[in-house]
Amino acid sequence: MLRNWKTNTRSLHQCRRRGGINNRPSSNSTKWNFQLIELSKQNHFQQALHLYTQMLSSGDSPSAFTFPFLLKSSAALSLLFTGQQIHGQLIHTGCDGDTFVNTSLISLYCKCGDLGDARKVFDEMSEGGREMMMKPTVCYNAMISGYVMRARGEEGVELFREMRRTGVAFDGVTMLGLGSVYGSPRELRFGMCLHGCNVRFGLMNGVAVGNCLLSMYVRCGKVEFARKLFDAMKMKGLISWNAMINGYAQNGMAADVLDLYQEMKTSGICPDALTFLGVLSSCAYLGACTVGCEVEHQMGILGLDSNPFLSNALINMHARCGNLVKARAIFDALQDKSLVSWTAIIGGYGMHGQGEIAVALFDGMIRSGICPDVTAFVSVLTACSHAGLPEKGLYYFYSMDRDYGLPPEREHYSCMVDLLGRAGRLEEARNLITSMRFKPDAAVWGALLGACKIHKNIELAELAFERATEIEPTNIGYYVLLSNIYLDARDKKGILKVRAMMRDRKLKKDPGYSYVDIKGKIHLFMSGDRSHPQTDRIYRRLKELEDSVKEHGFTKKGDASVSVGVHSERLAIAFAVLNSIDGTEIVVIKNLRVCDDCHLFLKLVSKVVNRRFIVRDATRFHHFDSGSCSCNDYW
User: Fold this and answer.
1) pLDDT single digits (tens) 163-199
2) Distance between CA atoms of 274 and 247, rounded to whole angstroms?
3) At what angle do helices 172-179 and 188-200 cross, to 10 degrees?
4) Cα–Cα distances in angstroms (integers) from residue 455 to residues 300, 421, 452, 492, 530, in the given order
5) Average pLDDT, stretch 514-540?
6) 484: Cβ contacts below 8 Å, ≥ 6 apart
7) Residues forming beta bridges with residue 524, ordered by sequence position
8) CA distance 635 to 629
9) Which secondary structure element, helix H or strand E, spans residue 100, and what is its range?
10) Neighbours of 154 (CB within 10 A)
11) Is the sign of the CA dihedral 218, 224, 230, 232 positive or negative?
């Protein structure tokens, strides 16, 4: 508190009695100041403060040039009391009117979380005994940054408005402080005004300001604005590239991430750990194993292979690209396995349907002394669902609150409804929904709807559909599910009813697409696609495969919700069979759930061509081999 600044000075008085402080600058203060500067530059903050006590003991007096470095050291070490003592000392030496001393004081109090005293310093700044008519820009910058740092951005913006009203000039540092305030779509308009100010006053030439605005647009979800700004920047540093790459990654634009990463490599900018995190997450999303392995190799060259965050990203990438063996090898090699590491490998085994191993890993994590969090429980519950382990899942679900003080959230209820529903315990799943302590969301009802399809319960399916579409009326997946339930029941009236609802609500089924990585290049196929250069060869090979599986009893059932062409995963498989060596494994990534027809088709093709197919659909991995699937037709 302000009243303590002059009383918390016991060491000051002790030094004064020894002759350590007087109000006249010592002729030796320059020597001490030079040493303080060097220690501060090297971040040796504790040594800087110790040197100051030596300075006082030697009888030399500090000057206005001394205090900023002492205040910086106190702020870096979060030593608020020490900073208050120094504040008292600088008042006694008459240095409290110096602009840079006051700026350092404001920064100290802000970084130590004492915004009230920071504002008092700001408001009471004086020069020659008179209150300043116009405070310097650097003081405004320090106060604005303090407000933003402590999540009081609105007060920072109001201070900026005061700057404009009183005619105080602003600079790039002001903009950097304000740029962090705007981070949601509703604040986009203000962020764009800030961008306009930078353009109008010629501040856009600074790389730091450009990076700040770039990050602002990304946080607001306007990636296209960010890319325009990025392309217009005359100078792009590593921070610029990372902001754009991770902006794409955070907004699910994985293909753009990989394209930009290639541009970055040709530009001569060396990537760092943050770059690789964005690229690896995109490789995991796309199933781009070749690019992911190239990144892994580059990490080794740059000495980043022991980075724990990148190791966790690699585990996730390899698991989601279908290579569980490699993911497990990286996990086992980790010396310090964090909760994130355990969750990544548990989730990997879960999505591949190897629930027993996932459960064993979860139990091993707890034995190792690591407590699960809500995300780890989602991973293990999902693993239990995919592997058909209802009792184990129920045990984990009820242990959340009982043993770990983690009340289940909506996502955990959704996992449990899916788990119980898939196991045929539909009434139990419905009762669990009614027992929820909060209103069920659409995902919970959607999980029940999916279970009703497996067990052909039309009555409960109609209830689940009604509840789900009340919450998410435009989610096309619920309409497709109900339509296919009616198809299984040969209920033409029900099918027509769903089609009419879709037509009235102007809903169209999401286009299905699949991609496959062949020789480091991602090949994308849409349903009924004929745009690929090898289209004629692909369709001829697909016709041969369809003729072959008909001999094994394959008959097409179809999709009731909409008339479509050849499903994308079949085109991807036919292309991969044509363009890969016999006997090699083929990995295909699909955006939607694999339909019953294609699931049976892929099982039979794996037997006919004697190849192993790994297909990742919207919910899990399917390993097709010798006419069977790892999911045991439970998906």
Assistant:
1) 888 888 888 888 888 877 766 666 777 778 888 888 8
2) 12
3) 170
4) 50, 8, 5, 19, 36
5) 92
6) 453, 559, 560, 561
7) 515
8) 10
9) helix 99-111
10) 11
11) negative
Over residues 23-61, the pLDDT tens digits come to 444 557 788 889 998 998 888 999 999 999 999 888 888
Token readout for 558 is: 């179809």
Q: Position of tokens 């009555």? A: 459
Write out pLDDT tens, residues 254-295.
999 999 999 999 999 999 999 999 999 999 998 888 999 999
Q: Under a CB-based contact definition with an 8 Å cutoff, are residues 606 and 613 in contact?
A: yes
DSSP letter (8 states) at residue 624: E
Tokens of 253: 């634009």
Determine the Cα–Cα distance for residues 514 and 562; give it in Å rounded to an integer: 18
Report whether 99 contacts 128 (CB < 8 A).
no
Beta-carbon neighbour count of residue 67 at 10 Å?
26
Can you read off the two tokens belonging to residue 131?
């209150």
Question: How far is residue 85's CA from residue 71's CA, in Å, rounded to a whole number?
Answer: 10
Instruction: Give strand pairing partners of 516.
Output: 523, 588
Q: Residue 167, SS3?
A: coil
| Nearest CA-CA partner of 624 in 352, 358, 355 | 352
By residue count, the chain amounts to 635
CA atoms of 544 and 230, how far apart (whole Å): 49
Helix (H, G, I), strand (E, B) or coil at 271: coil
